[in-house]
Predict the structure.
Amino acid sequence: MLPPPLPSGTIRQTDIAPLVASYRLTYQPVVARVRRTSQGGGFGDQARIPFTWTVYFMVDGVWVSLESARGLRREWGSLDKLEAWLRGQGFDVFWVRNDIDPVGQAEADLE
């Protein structure tokens, strides 16, 4: 298994189209499960829901994270909403990493 992306920079949503047009995005986006960093819109209950999803891009061979207009890491509480956002940005292929939740937990919950 490949190690998780470790971003060493940031980009903003407005940077994505020019980076795609100039062929500087060199890999599919990676969606990762991360610890929540901010409370957004009243829905980010860090005690009840401590984890969220974010997306990393490889720009010029370096992993970068997506930053909001306020300068915070962009986070999604729903993987479905993040998928819709990525497709809206023109990405039909992306990778999903979840290094937080234990493997096999979903099967155990079904029993």
Observations:
- The first strand starts at residue 10 and ends at 12.
- The helical segments are 13-21, 79-88, 105-110.
